[in-house]
Automatic annotation (TrEMBL):
Gene3D superfamilies: Metal-dependent hydrolases (3.20.20.140)
PROSITE patterns to which the protein is assigned, alphabetical: RENAL_DIPEPTIDASE_2
Protein name: Dipeptidase
């Protein structure tokens, strides 16, 4: 199985947690190895409260943590930068992918994004919940779309064969990405028809991603799943059912958002919950569909070949 989004790097930067095992983490290396997740995407998430002149340095620090804590000390963990590397993972190996959640750390300097791509970033979210020089976010009152600088960012991502991530993006920004980006992903978003949260995708947006042969990461954020104090795995299946009913079985993957959330779905309190989730997936859907959304869709669409 593959997970397209977690915030472990943010937690390691913010706290002195033991990456090997910590009860405070929903994702650590012990839990990862005990789970069915074969490949995990690790987001570089710089809080927007970080002073502007320090944001890019914090992003680089999170990359250092990725190498120092996750990749270099663990021979079984391989950094994934291409589809070829993804396909060549051995049975005893795990894959780790760097992603960027929000372009605010690059400011208005395209060279900063080039640096992050050179370090291995393979999914780039244009915004988090804050506006930046690339685009407004879904939380913006004005909801402006992609700026002229943002167009340059998308052109670079196209040239470098990198996913453009629309999760957190304004509605107008989403439409701009659909028009301009070669490789579209919503790394951690659910269906608005099922749960009316502004971070979720409308039917029109889902159909647009289907038309572009993009990817949608079903997320485990409780408030994106159901407007209730208690959220179960069955509630998550309502979203998957809806995506499939709209024709998105070739677009689905998972983007848990572990360590980016405080509340959790019952049975999915941490990454080891994927065992139960996987079993229930097979109870609900055919093996063909489960295999697609567990890993095949993600691998097939990985933009950079080698």
């Amino acid at each position: 199985m593959i997970d397209a989004h977690c915030d472990l790097l943010y937690q390691l930067w913010r706290h002195d947690y033991n990456v090997n095992q910590s009860d405070a983490l929903q994702f650590d290396l012990e839990k990862w190895r005990a789970s069915p997740i074969k490949v995990q995407a690790f987001a570089i998430f710089v809080p927007d409260t970080t002073p502007l002149n320090q944001q890019f340095d914090v992003a680089l620090k999170m990359i250092d943590l990725f190498y120092e804590k996750i990749v270099l000390p663990n021979p079984d963990i391989i950094q994934i930068q291409s589809k070829l590397e993804l396909e060549n993972l051995q049975p005893h190996q795990l894959g780790a992918i760097l992603t960027l959640e929000g372009c605010h750390p690059i400011g208005t300097d395209l060279n900063n994004l080039v640096r992050l791509i050179d370090e291995g970033v393979r999914i780039v979210g244009l915004t988090w919940n804050n506006n930046n020089a690339v685009s407004d976010s879904v939380m913006s009152i004005e909801g402006k779309g992609v700026s002229r600088f943002g167009e340059e960012v998308i052109q670079l991502l196209n040239a470098e064969q990198i996913w453009t991530d629309v999760s957190h993006l304004s509605v107008r920004g989403f439409d701009d990405v659909i028009d301009q980006a070669d490789h579209v992903i919503a790394s951690h978003s659910n269906a608005y028809r099922i749960c009316q949260h502004r971070r979720n995708l409308t039917d029109q947006q889902i159909k647009a991603i289907i038309k572009r042969d993009g990817l949608i990461g079903v997320t485990f954020v409780p408030e994106f799943t159901k407007s209730s104090d208690f959220v179960s795995i069955d509630d998550l299946f309502e979203h998957i059912d809806h995506f499939i009913e709209l024709g998105a079985e070739d677009q689905l993957c998972f983007g848990s958002d572990f360590d980016g959330i405080t509340n959790t779905i019952s049975g999915l309190e941490n990454v080891t919950g994927y065992h139960r989730f996987k079993k229930e997936l097979f109870d609900h859907y055919s093996r063909r569909i489960v295999n697609k959304i567990s890993s095949e869709n993600f691998i097939r669409k990985f933009p950079r070949i080698n």
